[in-house]
Design a protein that fits this description.
Strand content: 15-25%
Largest sheet: 3 strands, mixed
Order of helices and strands: HEEHHEH
Radius of gyration: 15 Å
Shape: globular
Oligomer: single chain
Structural class: alpha+beta
Helix content: 40-55%
Amino acid sequence: METASPRQNKVARLVQKELAEMFQKFAKDWMPGVLLSVTSVRVSPDFALAKVYISVFPTDKTEKVLETLNHNNKEIRYQLGQRVKHQLRLVPEIAIFLDDSLDYIQNIDNLLKE
């Protein structure tokens, strides 16, 4: 895996910050009772794609949340574009993935307790 350039990291942090703010507002309407966190964002070298990793609590609503976000992907990208239009020339396509590292950590923790 190649390392990201400083520009990629800067764009990724900007996208992560803006999406986190957007998801906080939109989660109330789209997914009441769900805590949604943007854990990380990775931007492709050509800045055309942003892989967004999210964490969902409670975990039993994960599939529904991913389905809702993917269904509203175009609207999310449009809103992101409105927020970053003065910083970015190209608004990246958004691919949303589940960050299951917290589940993995919890599973290891449970195994160690046994």
